[in-house]
Write a structure and sequence with these properties.
The protein is elongated, with a radius of gyration of 48 Å. The strands form four sheets. Strands 2, 3, 4, 5, 8 and 9 form a six-stranded antiparallel β-sheet that branches. Helices cover 53% and strands 12% of the residues.
Length: 669
């Protein structure tokens, strides 16, 4: 009747915030004569899942169901029930929680707490009563060493002196009895909210609630999210609007009513005793069956038969639920979740969903912490196996990336490693995929070495492959193809590294260094040839075709040595043009004292129009090809305008240097 003749409206919100898991919990029970509202904040980090808050809330409410009251010892019993539940179910992990309990008989109320989850009772727009955190920060504030408004950001706000699950016994703090009034509002918060929303924020949410408690908790949540804290914790809020308290219409007549119904109750009590005795016997049988199923499940887990283990543990959970044995049910639930995670992982593994199977096994291993590490050895074996299957696919994927970038040697190594690993773990699909990718790789390299690669585990074959690749690199280097030589040396070095041949690796390193040096020299020669070409172009533009030809010949020699056919063809074309220009030039000059013609003049024995040699004491046309050494390089010495000597690149040999006027000091020796 109390509940029906009063009006208590309740709403709550709970979320993980910026963490991976929500370790907060909220619950309430509204009976005919009493109502109990409980909120708990699990003290474990939200980065790992914990059921400490849920277990504490359920244990407190279960104790309330057993004996509902607002007496101080009743509230103390509720919190101590939560404390015992955390102690008994911790396993290898210490379960802890801040817990706050608010109990009312719809006319009066009390609240009790241990930790820093908070309770506020608002009346007429102000705080009428509130809890005080059992934290070092609050102690400093009470001693005047810390302002109250600084507690929410103080580093010691989570350093608690009392909490459920603490070592030893728990002595919670209990408020005085409060006489409720119509319009009162009770608010329960965990640290994730009150450290970002103060009493003023709560009052503002109450003012905007329009008699709807859901708007209060939603408003607080919105306010928290709008502030976007850097590292928000789990947060939970519960609001209870006391719109109307209970008023007893039969006040003063209670004793008469008790006497009137006392005798029937006595008769009923006797009959109930018989019923309870029979029920007790039934419960004992169910309890024995429950424990038998539980022990059978553990045995099946030890044998690795998780299907049967799941069947037995499900039966144990069902019996615990029927017996209302919350503690045993929580313990059995941990085993049931373990068997479900392992069975799910096995099914995913069998279907080829290896990443999902790995996640399921990891969840199972985390669950084993709550089951005294039951099945951990089996789970670790499965994790190692599925990890190897995943590694096969990762190696193949990495080989695909290397193959797409042109690193065929690296791709081959990854595919070979994947094939070998797949063979070792009996991964038929992975081995087949690795072989197919190897065949595709050999097709891209235009090599048919399938049989050799399948025998890559044999040291002799790897040594032969490496030696062949090194010889190919030597051949490319001897032909001046340093890019191809470098690639083949790198491939050879990887082969030698695979068989730990340190001497061969050092030999290859020396060759790689030589190739890099030759490439640099080749680039430098190409630069020099380009400079000669530019100088020849300048002489050509000035009409000095002889010196232009000399520069072009120097460039031609370099292009010929470095094998730049395109540049060589271009420079030969320029030399031909210079020869044409020189042959078309009119004769000039007068004989010197020795009787020889001047440079650019005409010898006595020359035909009119034939160009004279630009060399002193040497006959012949300007289009004559300078002497060439057996390796194709010009020999002799040549001094440019700047006096810079050139070795092995002179287009003509002579014993003296002659400077021809009008050619900017250039000389052909």
């Amino acid at each position: 009747m109390r509940r029906e003749n009063s009006k208590f409206n309740t709403a709550f919100v709970s979320y993980e915030g910026g963490k991976l898991f929500n370790n907060d919990y909220c619950g309430f029970a509204e009976l005919d004569g009493y109502a109990c509202y409980v909120i708990a904040d699990g003290l474990e980090s939200g980065d790992m899942e914990s059921h400490s808050a849920e277990l504490a809330v359920q244990s407190a409410i279960s104790s309330f169901h057993e004996h509902a009251s607002i007496k101080p010892r009743a509230l103390r019993r509720y919190l101590r029930a939560a404390h015992r539940a955390l102690h008994n179910s911790g396993g290898h992990m210490s379960l802890r929680a801040s817990v706050t309990v608010f109990v009312t008989d719809y006319k009066t109320a009390r609240y009790a707490w241990a930790g820093n989850s908070r309770f506020y009772l608002y009346r007429a727009g102000r705080i009428f009563s509130e809890s005080r955190d059992h934290s070092l920060s609050r102690k400093l504030a009470d001693e005047g060493k810390l302002p109250l408004d600084k507690i929410t950001l103080h580093e010691e706000r989570g350093n608690l002196s009392r909490y459920a699950g603490q070592p030893g016994s728990l002595n919670p703090q209990i408020s005085k009895k409060i006489k409720l009034k119509d319009g009162d509002a009770a608010v329960l918060l965990t640290r994730g909210l009150w450290e970002h929303c103060d009493a003023g924020d709560i009052r503002a949410s109450l003012d905007a609630a329009e008699n709807d408690p859901q708007k209060v908790v939603n408003g607080l949540e919105t306010l928290l999210l709008d502030r976007e804290p850097a590292d928000s914790d789990n947060y939970t809020a519960a609001a209870v609007f006391i719109d109307k308290i209970f008023t007893d219409p039969n006040k003063g007549k209670t004793l008469k009513r008790v006497l009137a119904i006392g005798i029937p109750i006595f008769v009923l009590a006797a009959a109930l005793s018989v019923v309870l005795f029979l029920r007790h016997r039934k419960n004992e049988t169910m309890r024995r069956n429950m424990r038998t199923a539980f022990l059978s499940a553990i045995e099946y887990i030890e044998d690795g038969n998780y299907i049967r283990a799941g069947e037995e543990i499900t039966s144990a959970v069902s019996l615990a639920k029927d017996l209302n044995d919350q503690t045993f049910r929580e313990r059995a639930e941990n085993y049931r979740k373990l068997t479900e995670a392992v069975t799910g992982g096995d099914n995913l593994f069998a279907s080829g969903a290896y990443e999902d199977a790995q996640a399921s096994y990891l969840a199972a291993r985390d669950r084993s912490r709550f089951t005294d590490n039951a099945g951990k050895e089996y789970i670790d074996r499965k994790l190692a196996a599925v990890g190897s299957f995943i590694s096969v696919r990762d190696l193949i994927s990495l080989g695909d990336v290397l193959s797409a970038s042109g690193d065929y040697a690296g791709a081959e190594a990854k595919y070979m490693a994947a094939r070998q690993l797949a063979s070792g773990i009996n991964d038929a699909d992975g081995r087949k995929q690795a072989i197919e990718t190897l065949e595709n790789l050999y097709s891209q390299e235009d090599r048919d070495r399938t049989q050799e690669q399948e025998a890559a585990g044999q040291r002799e074959q790897i040594m032969k492959d490496a030696a062949d690749m090194e010889a190919s690199g030597d051949e490319a280097a001897s032909m001046g193809d340093y890019t191809a030589a470098r690639l083949r040396y790198i491939i050879a070095r990887e082969r030698f590294a695979a068989i730990d041949d340190a001497d061969a690796q050092r030999r290859i390193d020396v060759k790689l260094a030589a190739v890099e040096e030759n490439r640099a020299q080749k680039d430098e020669q190409a630069h020099t040839a380009a400079r000669y070409t530019e100088e020849g172009d300048v002489f050509y533009d000035d009409g000095n075709y002889v010196d232009a030809k000399v520069r072009y010949i120097l460039a031609r020699n370099i292009y010929s040595r470095v094998g730049d056919d395109a540049a060589l063809a271009d420079i030969l074309s320029k030399i031909e043009i210079c020869d044409s220009r020189i042959n078309d030039a009119p004769p000039s000059g007068a004989p010197d004292a020795s009787g020889d013609s001047n440079v650019g003049g005409t010898d006595a024995g020359q035909d009119d129009g034939a160009p004279a040699s630009s060399e002193t004491g040497r006959s012949g046309g300007a289009d004559e090809t300078p002497p060439v050494s057996p390796d194709g390089a010009e020999y002799g010495e040549f001094n440019t305008t700047g006096g810079q000597p050139s070795t092995g690149e002179n287009p003509a040999a002579s014993d003296s240097n002659t400077s021809t006027p009008g050619e900017e000091g250039g000389a052909v020796g």
